[in-house]
Amino acid sequence: MRLKNKISVITGAANGMGAAEANLFAQQGSHVIICDILDDDGTNVANQINESNYSAEYYHLDVSQEDQWQNLKHHIMDKFGRLDILVNNAGLSGTSGDLTSTDYYDELNEINAKSVYLGMKTAISIMENQNGGSIVNISSMAALVGVDYVHLGYTGSKGAVRMMTKAAAVQYADKSIRINSVHPGMMPPMATAKRLINDPKFFDSVIKTVPMERVGKVEEVANAVLFLASDEASYITGIELPVDGGSTAK
Ligand SMILES: NC(=O)c1ccc[n+]([C@@H]2O[C@H](COP(=O)([O-])OP(=O)(O)OC[C@H]3O[C@@H](n4cnc5c(N)ncnc54)[C@H](O)[C@@H]3O)[C@@H](O)[C@H]2O)c1
Question: Of residues 247 and 20, which shows the higher confidence score?
Fold first, then answer.
């Protein structure tokens, strides 16, 4: 078991990649706190995990609200006294509304970027007082290359996730908190990607830009997130590299 006895929070885990990560983390021995605003879907994911004799619970969290992150922190500290892993996964698609709307720009930044800041702030305030932890932020390929057909607020918000991740990783490495971002390519359409879901021509035109000409599987991303969350990805300050062929880590 790669996450034995770890306490994990995964946001946006009622559906899609977050749900796949919740299932995989639970199978690997973690207790998973499934956070979302879709209470029925999130409760179903938690129930299915518990029915399989793994361990999960659902917790209502709107990731854009700082007071709700504070409530989650109190819940975690009262119940477990620590947090080992946070996956900031919740997000909105940038393909569902008016691609020139400023209100949509603001919404994308609240849900996709500010949420990651709030999540890191909350998790770090716990992890810096224990023996570290791991944070994985779900960004997008849209933070790495220019993409067509999507609101600039989406690409900007995912770019912000990328750079906040890098800066936070530098700032908290000395507390043994590892912080990484993951950049999925084209995955099963997000629930909020209405144009992708409803317009087959649009979908076909986008898939042609993917070298493998297929959509990724949620499990493919979940496995990458699992590695980064686990102790296998433990390259942090304090590890000594071998200089004489001898053994390594302290
Ligand atoms: N699907 C793709 O093609 C793709 C590609 C690259 C990156 N991503 C990113 O991966 C992440 C997961 O995407 P997905 O495809 O699984 O999407 P999804 O739409 O299937 O799931 C997103 C989840 O986030 C939740 N959510 C939305 N707003 C929230 C809020 N304010 N508070 C809490 N939860 C909220 C939704 O209820 C939903 O359960 C997102 O950050 C997305 O931007 C997706």
Answer: 20
Give pLDDT, residue 242: 59
Is the beta carbon of 14 within 6 A of some atom in ligand 1? yes
Class of domain 7-187+217-233: alpha beta
pLDDT, tens digit (0-9, with 9 covering 90-100), for 105-144? 999 999 999 999 999 999 999 999 999 999 999 999 999 9
Number of C-beta neighbours around residue 98 at 10 A: 9
Q: Which of 32, 69, 71, 61 is nearest to 49 (CA)?
A: 32
226 lines ligand 1 (CB under 6 A): no
Residue 211, strand partner residues: none
- Of 54, 105, 154, 172, the active-site residue reads 154
Which tokens hold the place of 228?
Answer: 């980064």
Summarised one tens digit per residue, pLDDT across range 33-78 is 999 999 999 999 999 999 999 999 999 999 999 999 999 999 999 9
Q: 59 phi and psi, to 5 degrees?
A: -135, 125
Residue 149 is among the residues annotated as catalytic for this protein: no
Whether 64 is in the pocket of ligand 1, judged by its Cβ within 6 Å, is yes
List pLDDT tens digits, range 228-243: 999 999 985 454 555 5
Q: Please give the distance, rounded to the nearest whole angstrom, from the Cα atom of residue 247 to the centre of ligand 1.
A: 42
* CA 126 to ligand 1 centroid distance, Å: 25
